[in-house]
Amino acid sequence: MHGRSFVAVSVAGGLALVYAVLVPVACVAEDVATAEQPATPTGAATPSPSPAVPSPSPANAAPPVTPAPSQTEAAAPAADPVIAGIRSKLADAALRKGADPADLAALDTFYAGRSGPPVWVTPMGFSARAQATIDEIGKADDWGLSASAFQLPPAGILPKTVDDQAVAEIKLQLAVLKYARFARGGRVNPSSLSNILDLDPPIRDPKIVLAEISVSPDPGSYLQSLHPKHEQFQNLRRALLKARGGDGTSKPASERDIQKIVINMERWRWMPENLGKIYVQDNVPEYMLYVVKDGKVIHSDKIVVGLLRYATPVFSADMQSIVFNPEWTVPPTIVRENLMPNLRGGGWFGGSSILSEHGLKVKYNGRIVDAGSVNWSSVNMANIAFVQAPGPTNVLGKLKFVYPNKHMVYMHDTIKRGLFKPTMRAEGHNCIRMEKPSQLAQILLAEDKGWDTKKVQDLLDKGYDSAVNLDHPIPVHTTYFTAVADADGKVTSFPDLYALDGKLAPIVAGKAVASATTDDDADTPTGSVPAARSKPPKENVAGQIQGLFGD
Q: What is the CA radius of gyration of the chain?
């Protein structure tokens, strides 16, 4: 600048003084404008730079032409001071400590795109909407959650500075997002409790929560709406209020009973939001199957589930087909633990005689081969399958209901009719056996295809490994509810067959953090030491095979 001033003095005499004054003033003005411009938030449009100050021109020179601003170069709106403070405070490690990473990322995005005003705070403290939000989170215990889990700022806080307002806003937003996550997705990933819990809780996207609650006229009601809508969840909530004496007519129940209700409310948070217009539910601890249509039970049946060692997994999948008089392919677990030790010598049945004893054929790459021609010590078992033809001794009976899943589990008939007499019906491996499979087939095929009973019966009589594909897949929900409630809040409890209540109890009480477990650990009752999983002793093979194949 000094060099250009000197040239002006040499060339234009009287103009030199004007130029020497104008240039510094313009530069100072530019500096001031720059200092007052708020910082551009991450992801926001970068404002166009200020045009350079024009060089002085001779008196007879044409005035400079100022280009018209582009429509796409509009300056970003100035952020509210509190919003700017929130952006800064969101980098504070102390505020971020213990918060869910997805919640923090959502807050970063939300406030980077917001110019103001804040959602909850005003210069006079929290707004009425904020007060209603704090009040609702404070009632979390009424919904089976724990209010103490949420670090709420004091409702009557009067923040003195912009930074104080920013911190109050962030703390309330973090509490809102945590509440939303707990309300719909639960407090723990179920698979971290046990490998048999194969569930994907439908957690609401925190970005959507922030967008919706920021414009909700009634944020308290919005938070309530995040809890499961399922009828059974609502019944359990009524039972919870009744158990705590909150209905004004009942005496408080024991802490153990209350905990049982809360544990099962938590399990409903893991369920799909939409169970299906018509669906099948297999409730393992209850040993019962239900067909539900439009929210009403239209069929129920007794079921048999897997023993503790071979626990029936908990998951949801769509039924794709029903197989009449099915062929049975022996599952990998039975092959590994029951068949191979005998085929490789030393078993009770003397090698391949175990196969003929139960009508099993050997398939090699899909082709039937003589079992005696196979070198069982060296064969690649990936190419081998053991199958049992349809018939009166087939372990699957006359029907198989297929809902493809990674567990290779399905529902089927059984030739062991005596399994349904006891109240406690856990037997054998993890597939589900039902007492009245033909009725289930008739109901589902009538719903899906409009079939009458005669058409179903014809396939039962004449079908041979005949698969009927459903036009509309029907959801099958294998559940683990140890307590259910009716509309009046009356609770019915079932035994904790796989000792999973004990895994969840400390989580809902806020006393422990879940860690991933093996199937063995998940099946160990609380308070006991898990024993090393041993191979099935050879002397029990005969009994296990007989238990699988019939009486």
A: 35
Other residues' Cβ atoms within 10 Å of the Cβ of residue 487: 9
Q: What angle do CA 379, 382, 387 make, to 5 degrees?
A: 95
| pLDDT value at residue 416 | 93
Instruction: Spell 422-453 as b/e; 16+ CB within 10 A means b.
Output: eeebbbbbbbbbbbebbbbbbbbbebbeebee
Give Cα 369 distance to the centre of its chain: 45
Which is it for strands 328-329 and 315-324: parallel, antiparallel or unpaired?
A: unpaired
Q: Using one digit for the tens of pLDDT, what is the confidence trace for 218-253?
A: 999 999 999 999 999 999 999 999 999 877 777 889
**What DSSP line would sit under 480-525, residue for residue?**
--SEEE-TT--EEE---TTS-HHHHHHHHTTS-------HHHHTSP
Tokens standing for 379? 């064969």
How far apart (Å, rounded) are the C-alpha atoms in residues 15 and 8? 7
Supply the DSSP symbol for 308. G
What are the pLDDT digits (tens) for 95-115? 899 999 999 999 999 999 998
Share of the chain above pLDDT 90, in %: 65
Q: Which two tokens stand for residue 489?
A: 């809040």
C-beta of residue 206 within 8 angstroms of C-beta of residue 129: no
> What tokens appear for 416 in the block?
């062991």
Measured N-to-C along each axis, helices 206-215 and 162-185 cross at an angle, to the nearest 10 degrees, of 120
Task: With both helix axes pointing from N to C terminus, report the angle between 255-268 and 231-243 in degrees, rounded to the nearest 10.
Answer: 160
Q: Domain residues of the chain, as ranges?
A: 2-62+69-73, 81-227, 274-484+519-531
Structural contact between residues 147 and 139, judged by C-beta atoms closer than 8 angstroms = yes
What are the backbone dihedrals phi and psi of residue 296, each rounded to the nearest 5 degrees, phi first? -115, 140
- Model-level pTM? 0.78
- 310-329: per-residue pLDDT in tens? 999 999 999 999 999 999 99
For 392-406, give one letter per residue: b (16+ CB within 10 A) or e. Answer: eebbbbbbbbbbebe
CB atoms within 10 A of CB 343: 24
Whether pLDDT at 72 is above 70: no
Place of tokens 């007519």: 249
Question: Residue 520's closest CA among 535, 507, 532?
Answer: 532
Structure tokens at 518: 């093996």
Does the structure show a pLDDT above 50 at 522? no
**Count of CA atoms in the C-beta half-sphere (13 A) of 28:** 5
What number of H helices and E strands is found in the chain? 19, 16
Q: Strands 278-283 and 288-293, how do they pair?
A: antiparallel
Rounded Cα distance between 25 and 381, Å, is 88
User: 369, 362 in Cβ contact below 8 A?
Assistant: yes
Six-digit token pair at 12?
A: 């234009």
Measured distance CA(506)–CA(512) in Å, rounded: 5
Answer whether CATH 2.40.440.10 is correct for domain 274-484+519-531: yes
DSSP string, 352-381: THHHHHTTEEEEETTEEE-GGGS-TTT--G
